[in-house]
Amino acid sequence: MPSPPICVFLTTIASQPALRQRQEYLLRILQVKRIPFSSYDLASDEDAKRLWRRRAPPDQQQLPGILVGGQFPGPFSEFEDAVECDELDVFLRLNETWKADDDQPMIPVKPIGVPGAVTPLQMTPDHLKKKILAQAPVSPLKGKRIPVNKREGQFDVSTELEGYGLQGVKVTEEELINLVAELGLDGDDAGDLVKGLSGGSSSKAGGDDTEPSEAVGEKEQTGVSETESSQGRHR
């Protein structure tokens, strides 16, 4: 069975900075600890105002206020003490069981203009809330991006496409295939283009190794021919 319901009483007319800070602190603690609650605006909700004045002691009706299971657990200062002493479960009776009283139903929750007073789940319609809660939790590692320096199978596309400002842009062969498909190419043309871009760097490197030696050989042959011709003229 659930624990006693927690009702938080706030006001949208919070002209004093200290009051706004207390409201923000209360809401932040409840949300961080994922404690369910219902919030009411005493500036616009007359039913909530009457309930608060009826249940809270006359000398302790300062806002923000809390009712747990329809009972007054203490003022805001005691809530702060419970947070600091790690006794919030005792102050809010989180470990107790609660049976709803049909004779004293909860007052309806109305929209409230205090930031953080309503959680995203509370704003979700009931017919969608069941689907959201039924979904399996997503692993925090799912979809985690891999650092660039640890990715495998990538190459610098600027080595093949020079002059386009692509220095440092690394892609995989799969990404190239998807890009070629978006360009409308398919069949042998697409395969040749992908192979040329992804595998061209190695062939280019190999070509650089052979071209200088060939050039040197041609230069040596040219030098020999020029030497022989000059010797013939001297004779």
TrEMBL record:
InterPro entries assigned to the protein according to its UniProt record, in alphabetical order: Glut_rich_SH3-bd, SH3BGR, Thioredoxin-like_sf
Q: Which Pfam families match?
A: SH3BGR (PF04908)
Q: Family assignment?
A: Belongs to the SH3BGR family.
| Coiled-coil segments | none
Q: Where is the signal peptide?
A: none
Q: Which SUPFAM superfamilies match?
A: Thioredoxin-like
Extract the Gene3D superfamilies matched here.
Glutaredoxin (3.40.30.10)
Name a single GO cellular component: cytoplasm
**Bias-annotated ranges (Low complexity):** 193-205
Q: Which organism is it from?
A: Tricholomella constricta
Protein's name according to its UniProt entry: SH3 domain-binding glutamic acid-rich protein
Where do the record's region annotations for Disordered lie?
192-235
Q: Which domain of life is it from?
A: Eukaryota
Quote the biased-composition stretches of kind Polar residues, using this chain's numbering.
Answer: 222-235
